[in-house]
Design goal:
Order of helices and strands: EHEEHEHEEHHHHEHEEHEHE
CATH architecture of the largest domain: 2-Layer Sandwich
Distance between the termini: 42 Å
Structural class: alpha/beta
CATH superfamily of the largest domain: Reverse transcriptase/Diguanylate cyclase domain
Shape: elongated
Strand order of the largest sheet: 2-1-3-4-5-6
Largest sheet: 6 strands, mixed
CATH topology of the largest domain: Alpha-Beta Plaits
Oligomer: single chain
Strand content: 15-25%
Number of domains: 3
Radius of gyration: 24 Å
CATH class of the largest domain: Alpha Beta
Helix content: 25-40%
């Protein structure tokens, strides 16, 4: 699939800057029939009525028109100072944005435009596990039986789901929570939906494994999370004292409400054995122009959590607070 690069509605200096950096060559205007491999950059100078044959009056509606061919990539030129441009562009089905300083006449960030589609992350341990299961099922003569029944029926093997959950809380364990983070991030980006990530540190000293209060405290904390969250949310124990929550379809405001609710409930709860918790929470939401993959999303959340641990009450830090 050969790439053809097109640019429309952009001043000459911007086209020259884009061509000079990565060494690209743009054709002026729009492709007569956008197709797979075409990359279209929509600039800020699109005028109403200029593309009347497409029934469009501005860059965002033109973007949606071009994306009728989903394998055509479209990028919108936006002001680098606009914090909402990336979200609006993706809502209009754009693949990304080109951030420009119009006063200084310079391109600030064109990294999304230079990404190549189809880039795959390295296979994870979970990928390997699922591949082995698929290989086993393909060679299994008892194909009439349910795949799930065969997995759960192994007399000498622990239940499949048990291998994905933390035994002390019943929530997903760290490795599987990481796998779900990658999966939900890709889903949110593909369908242009918000995704919020909450990291919650319960703020207790590490309890010895032999201490009976350990399992009781963790079970009580997990019960709060299960009560407050929805069925579609992903709940995992990320580290010894940190829990991870993935909230599909939830924006920053909704995630903040949930974080405050969990904080309030944990503050009011009298835990068994007189155990005290001092929770700290971090809230990060995508799409965000500075977050291009799940590693960047998690790194941003961990940075917010470090700030939250040192903050005064209430110890909730969202990415918008930084």
């Amino acid at each position: 699939m050969s790439e053809r690069w097109w640019i429309v509605g952009a001043p000459g200096w911007l086209r020259e800057a884009l061509e000079a950096g990565p060494g690209l060559t743009f054709e002026e205007g729009l492709p007569s029939s956008p197709g797979p491999g075409d990359v279209v950059v929509l600039g800020p100078e699109l005028l109403a009525g200029e593309f009347a044959d497409r029934s469009t009056v501005h860059a965002h509606s033109l973007c949606r028109s071009i994306k009728a061919e989903p394998r055509t990539r479209v990028y919108l030129v936006v002001d680098a100072r606009d914090p909402f441009a990336g979200e609006i562009a993706r809502f209009c089905l754009a693949n990304g944005v080109v951030r420009v300083d119009f006063q200084g006449r310079s391109v600030i960030d064109a990294s999304e435009m230079l990404e190549r589609p189809g880039t795959r992350l390295p296979r994870s341990a979970t990928d390997e596990l699922l591949q082995r299961l698929e290989d086993e099922l393909r060679t299994d003569e008892g194909k009439q039986a349910s795949a799930l029944q065969r997995i759960l029926a192994g007399a000498d093997e622990p239940r499949f789901l048990d291998r994905l959950t933390d035994p002390e809380t019943g929530l997903f364990d760290g490795p599987f929570a990481s796998f779900k983070l990658d999966e939900e991030f890709k889903r949110a980006r593909r369908f242009h939906q918000p995704l919020s990530l909450i990291l919650l540190d319960i703020g207790v000293e590490k309890l010895p494994e032999a201490d009976p209060a350990r399992r009781t405290l963790l079970a009580e904390v997990a019960s709060i999370f299960l009560t407050e969250c929805r069925d579609i949310d992903v709940l995992g124990r990320f580290t010894e004292t940190v829990f991870l929550f993935l909230l599909p379809g939830t924006g920053a405001a909704g995630a903040r409400v949930l974080a405050e609710r969990m904080m309030a409930t944990m503050g009011e709860r009298e835990f068994s054995g007189g155990c005290m918790v001092e929770p700290a929470l971090a809230v990060v939401t995508v799409p965000d122009p500075g977050i291009s993959d799940r590693s960047a999303l998690l790194a941003r959340a961990e940075a917010c959590l470090r700030i939250a641990r040192d903050a005064s009450q209430p110890r909730i830090v969202s990415d918008q607070d930084r």
